[in-house]
Design brief:
Length: 268
Protein backbone atom coordinates (compact mmCIF):
# COMPACT_ATOMS: atom_id res chain seq x y z
CA UNK A 1 0.00 0.00 0.00
CA UNK A 2 2.76 2.46 0.95
CA UNK A 3 4.51 1.61 -2.29
CA UNK A 4 1.42 2.46 -4.34
CA UNK A 5 1.03 5.80 -2.55
CA UNK A 6 4.75 6.48 -3.07
CA UNK A 7 4.50 5.58 -6.75
CA UNK A 8 1.51 7.90 -7.26
CA UNK A 9 3.20 10.73 -5.34
CA UNK A 10 6.35 10.29 -7.44
CA UNK A 11 4.31 10.47 -10.67
CA UNK A 12 2.52 13.65 -9.57
CA UNK A 13 5.73 15.39 -8.43
CA UNK A 14 7.70 14.35 -11.52
CA UNK A 15 4.87 15.57 -13.78
CA UNK A 16 4.72 18.93 -11.98
CA UNK A 17 8.52 19.29 -12.15
CA UNK A 18 8.49 18.42 -15.85
CA UNK A 19 5.79 20.99 -16.58
CA UNK A 20 7.69 23.60 -14.54
CA UNK A 21 10.79 22.88 -16.65
CA UNK A 22 12.90 21.53 -13.78
CA UNK A 23 13.14 18.07 -15.36
CA UNK A 24 13.49 16.92 -18.96
CA UNK A 25 11.28 14.06 -20.16
CA UNK A 26 13.98 11.45 -19.40
CA UNK A 27 14.62 13.17 -16.06
CA UNK A 28 10.92 12.92 -15.15
CA UNK A 29 10.91 9.16 -15.93
CA UNK A 30 14.02 8.63 -13.79
CA UNK A 31 12.43 10.71 -11.02
CA UNK A 32 9.32 8.46 -11.03
CA UNK A 33 11.63 5.45 -10.70
CA UNK A 34 13.88 6.78 -7.90
CA UNK A 35 11.00 8.66 -6.22
CA UNK A 36 8.80 5.52 -6.06
CA UNK A 37 11.57 3.59 -4.32
CA UNK A 38 12.45 6.34 -1.88
CA UNK A 39 8.85 7.40 -1.07
CA UNK A 40 7.29 3.96 -1.31
CA UNK A 41 9.94 1.90 0.48
CA UNK A 42 11.51 4.49 2.79
CA UNK A 43 8.31 6.21 3.90
CA UNK A 44 7.70 9.78 4.99
CA UNK A 45 11.10 10.81 6.46
CA UNK A 46 12.89 9.52 3.34
CA UNK A 47 10.39 11.30 1.09
CA UNK A 48 10.92 14.57 2.96
CA UNK A 49 14.72 14.47 2.54
CA UNK A 50 14.41 13.78 -1.19
CA UNK A 51 11.87 16.59 -1.61
CA UNK A 52 13.96 19.01 0.48
CA UNK A 53 16.84 18.36 -1.92
CA UNK A 54 14.74 18.46 -5.06
CA UNK A 55 12.70 21.56 -4.24
CA UNK A 56 15.55 23.65 -2.76
CA UNK A 57 18.00 22.88 -5.55
CA UNK A 58 15.44 23.41 -8.34
CA UNK A 59 14.40 26.70 -6.75
CA UNK A 60 18.03 27.88 -6.61
CA UNK A 61 18.62 26.88 -10.25
CA UNK A 62 15.56 28.88 -11.19
CA UNK A 63 16.37 31.89 -8.97
CA UNK A 64 19.92 32.28 -10.22
CA UNK A 65 19.41 30.82 -13.69
CA UNK A 66 19.63 34.21 -15.40
CA UNK A 67 22.81 35.30 -13.63
CA UNK A 68 24.35 31.91 -14.35
CA UNK A 69 23.30 31.94 -18.01
CA UNK A 70 26.64 33.40 -19.14
CA UNK A 71 28.34 30.27 -17.84
CA UNK A 72 26.09 27.80 -19.70
CA UNK A 73 28.95 27.12 -22.12
CA UNK A 74 30.98 25.70 -19.21
CA UNK A 75 28.43 23.34 -17.69
CA UNK A 76 27.66 20.11 -19.52
CA UNK A 77 23.94 20.50 -18.95
CA UNK A 78 21.35 23.24 -18.52
CA UNK A 79 18.85 23.78 -15.70
CA UNK A 80 16.54 21.00 -16.91
CA UNK A 81 17.75 17.88 -15.16
CA UNK A 82 17.93 14.77 -17.36
CA UNK A 83 17.89 11.09 -16.35
CA UNK A 84 21.66 10.96 -15.77
CA UNK A 85 21.53 13.83 -13.27
CA UNK A 86 18.48 12.38 -11.51
CA UNK A 87 20.12 8.95 -11.17
CA UNK A 88 23.43 10.53 -10.07
CA UNK A 89 21.67 12.44 -7.28
CA UNK A 90 18.94 9.98 -6.27
CA UNK A 91 20.23 6.57 -7.43
CA UNK A 92 22.09 5.72 -4.25
CA UNK A 93 19.05 6.80 -2.19
CA UNK A 94 16.84 4.44 -4.21
CA UNK A 95 19.30 1.58 -3.61
CA UNK A 96 19.41 2.32 0.13
CA UNK A 97 15.59 2.42 0.29
CA UNK A 98 15.52 -0.99 -1.41
CA UNK A 99 18.14 -2.39 0.99
CA UNK A 100 16.18 -0.94 3.93
CA UNK A 101 13.11 -2.89 2.79
CA UNK A 102 14.94 -6.18 2.24
CA UNK A 103 16.79 -6.08 5.55
CA UNK A 104 15.60 -3.31 7.81
CA UNK A 105 18.56 -1.89 9.70
CA UNK A 106 17.16 1.56 9.90
CA UNK A 107 19.94 3.25 11.87
CA UNK A 108 22.86 3.18 9.46
CA UNK A 109 20.82 3.07 6.25
CA UNK A 110 18.92 6.18 7.24
CA UNK A 111 22.16 8.00 8.15
CA UNK A 112 23.76 6.89 4.88
CA UNK A 113 20.75 8.26 2.99
CA UNK A 114 20.86 11.55 4.93
CA UNK A 115 24.63 11.87 4.28
CA UNK A 116 24.12 11.21 0.55
CA UNK A 117 21.33 13.78 0.28
CA UNK A 118 23.34 16.33 2.31
CA UNK A 119 26.31 15.89 -0.05
CA UNK A 120 24.33 16.29 -3.29
CA UNK A 121 22.33 19.19 -1.84
CA UNK A 122 25.51 20.88 -0.59
CA UNK A 123 27.10 20.35 -4.00
CA UNK A 124 24.11 21.77 -5.88
CA UNK A 125 23.81 24.79 -3.59
CA UNK A 126 27.54 25.51 -3.86
CA UNK A 127 27.40 25.33 -7.66
CA UNK A 128 24.30 27.52 -7.94
CA UNK A 129 25.38 30.12 -5.37
CA UNK A 130 29.16 29.84 -5.80
CA UNK A 131 29.08 31.21 -9.36
CA UNK A 132 27.67 34.45 -7.93
CA UNK A 133 30.83 35.02 -5.87
CA UNK A 134 32.49 38.34 -6.74
CA UNK A 135 35.89 36.72 -6.05
CA UNK A 136 37.37 34.27 -8.59
CA UNK A 137 37.44 30.66 -7.49
CA UNK A 138 40.64 28.82 -6.69
CA UNK A 139 41.35 25.25 -7.71
CA UNK A 140 40.76 22.98 -4.69
CA UNK A 141 43.91 20.99 -5.51
CA UNK A 142 46.47 23.67 -6.44
CA UNK A 143 44.97 26.89 -5.04
CA UNK A 144 45.47 28.53 -8.44
CA UNK A 145 42.92 31.17 -9.50
CA UNK A 146 40.61 29.87 -12.23
CA UNK A 147 37.73 31.20 -14.30
CA UNK A 148 34.25 31.08 -12.78
CA UNK A 149 32.39 27.84 -13.43
CA UNK A 150 35.59 25.79 -13.77
CA UNK A 151 35.21 22.23 -12.42
CA UNK A 152 37.22 21.86 -9.23
CA UNK A 153 37.23 25.59 -8.47
CA UNK A 154 35.93 26.63 -5.05
CA UNK A 155 35.02 29.93 -3.39
CA UNK A 156 34.24 30.92 0.19
CA UNK A 157 30.67 31.78 -0.88
CA UNK A 158 30.22 28.38 -2.53
CA UNK A 159 31.66 26.52 0.46
CA UNK A 160 29.31 28.36 2.85
CA UNK A 161 26.45 27.52 0.48
CA UNK A 162 27.46 23.84 0.72
CA UNK A 163 27.24 24.08 4.53
CA UNK A 164 23.78 25.65 4.15
CA UNK A 165 22.57 22.97 1.74
CA UNK A 166 23.86 20.18 3.98
CA UNK A 167 22.40 21.86 7.08
CA UNK A 168 18.93 22.07 5.55
CA UNK A 169 19.00 18.29 4.91
CA UNK A 170 20.40 17.69 8.42
CA UNK A 171 17.64 19.74 10.04
CA UNK A 172 14.93 17.95 8.01
CA UNK A 173 16.50 14.60 8.99
CA UNK A 174 16.51 15.24 12.74
CA UNK A 175 13.06 16.89 12.74
CA UNK A 176 11.33 14.10 10.82
CA UNK A 177 13.25 11.21 12.37
CA UNK A 178 13.87 12.37 15.93
CA UNK A 179 16.46 10.64 18.13
CA UNK A 180 17.90 11.52 21.55
CA UNK A 181 21.24 12.05 19.77
CA UNK A 182 19.76 14.57 17.40
CA UNK A 183 22.50 17.18 17.85
CA UNK A 184 25.35 14.75 17.10
CA UNK A 185 23.38 13.44 14.12
CA UNK A 186 22.89 16.96 12.82
CA UNK A 187 26.62 17.75 13.10
CA UNK A 188 27.53 14.46 11.42
CA UNK A 189 25.15 15.02 8.50
CA UNK A 190 26.40 18.60 7.93
CA UNK A 191 30.04 17.48 8.07
CA UNK A 192 29.42 14.52 5.74
CA UNK A 193 27.55 16.80 3.32
CA UNK A 194 30.26 19.48 3.31
CA UNK A 195 33.12 17.00 2.86
CA UNK A 196 31.13 15.05 0.25
CA UNK A 197 30.63 18.20 -1.80
CA UNK A 198 34.31 19.16 -1.45
CA UNK A 199 35.12 15.63 -2.67
CA UNK A 200 33.02 16.46 -5.73
CA UNK A 201 35.34 19.45 -6.34
CA UNK A 202 38.46 17.30 -5.87
CA UNK A 203 37.18 14.88 -8.52
CA UNK A 204 36.27 17.86 -10.73
CA UNK A 205 39.87 19.07 -10.45
CA UNK A 206 41.48 15.68 -11.05
CA UNK A 207 39.74 12.80 -12.85
CA UNK A 208 36.62 14.45 -14.32
CA UNK A 209 36.82 14.69 -18.12
CA UNK A 210 37.31 18.35 -19.07
CA UNK A 211 37.35 19.50 -22.67
CA UNK A 212 38.73 22.43 -24.62
CA UNK A 213 36.98 24.57 -27.22
CA UNK A 214 39.56 25.88 -29.71
CA UNK A 215 37.15 28.50 -31.10
CA UNK A 216 36.35 30.10 -27.73
CA UNK A 217 39.74 29.24 -26.16
CA UNK A 218 37.90 27.95 -23.11
CA UNK A 219 37.63 24.93 -20.85
CA UNK A 220 34.23 23.22 -20.78
CA UNK A 221 32.44 20.07 -19.62
CA UNK A 222 30.62 19.98 -22.95
CA UNK A 223 31.47 17.19 -25.38
CA UNK A 224 31.40 16.40 -28.30
CA UNK A 225 30.15 19.90 -29.22
CA UNK A 226 30.59 23.19 -27.40
CA UNK A 227 27.60 25.58 -27.24
CA UNK A 228 29.19 27.49 -30.15
CA UNK A 229 29.02 24.32 -32.27
CA UNK A 230 32.76 23.62 -32.35
CA UNK A 231 34.01 20.11 -31.57
CA UNK A 232 35.76 20.02 -28.18
CA UNK A 233 38.85 17.94 -27.42
CA UNK A 234 39.76 16.34 -24.11
CA UNK A 235 42.06 18.46 -21.98
CA UNK A 236 42.34 16.47 -18.76
CA UNK A 237 40.67 13.75 -16.70
CA UNK A 238 39.37 10.30 -17.60
CA UNK A 239 36.98 10.18 -20.55
CA UNK A 240 34.29 8.11 -18.77
CA UNK A 241 34.16 10.37 -15.71
CA UNK A 242 31.49 12.91 -16.64
CA UNK A 243 29.58 15.21 -14.29
CA UNK A 244 27.00 12.51 -13.46
CA UNK A 245 29.71 10.03 -12.39
CA UNK A 246 31.25 12.74 -10.18
CA UNK A 247 27.87 13.58 -8.60
CA UNK A 248 27.16 9.92 -7.91
CA UNK A 249 30.60 9.57 -6.27
CA UNK A 250 29.79 12.69 -4.19
CA UNK A 251 26.60 11.01 -2.90
CA UNK A 252 28.50 7.78 -2.11
CA UNK A 253 31.14 9.77 -0.21
CA UNK A 254 28.46 11.63 1.79
CA UNK A 255 26.86 8.30 2.75
CA UNK A 256 30.15 6.65 3.75
CA UNK A 257 31.26 9.66 5.81
CA UNK A 258 27.94 9.94 7.66
CA UNK A 259 28.03 6.25 8.64
CA UNK A 260 31.77 6.42 9.41
CA UNK A 261 31.43 9.45 11.70
CA UNK A 262 28.46 7.84 13.47
CA UNK A 263 30.61 4.77 14.20
CA UNK A 264 33.46 6.94 15.47
CA UNK A 265 31.08 8.78 17.80
CA UNK A 266 29.51 5.49 18.94
CA UNK A 267 26.10 6.46 17.64
CA UNK A 268 25.72 3.17 15.79
ZN1 LIG B 1 33.17 27.30 -28.17
Amino acid sequence: MQFIIGFLAAIIIAALAWRAGALSRSGALAAVFTGSFIFGLGGLPWAILLLTFFISSSALSRAFGKRKAGLAEKFSKGNQRDWGQVMANGGLGALLALAYTIQPQPEWMWLAFAGAMAAVNGDTWSTEIGVLSPISPRMITSGKKVERGTSGGITFTGTMAAVGGAALIGIAAVVFSPTPDWFSQLVIIILAGLLGSLFDSVLGATIQAIYWCPTCNKETERHPLHLCGTQTSQLRGWSWVNNDVVNFACSVMGAILAVGFAYLYHLL
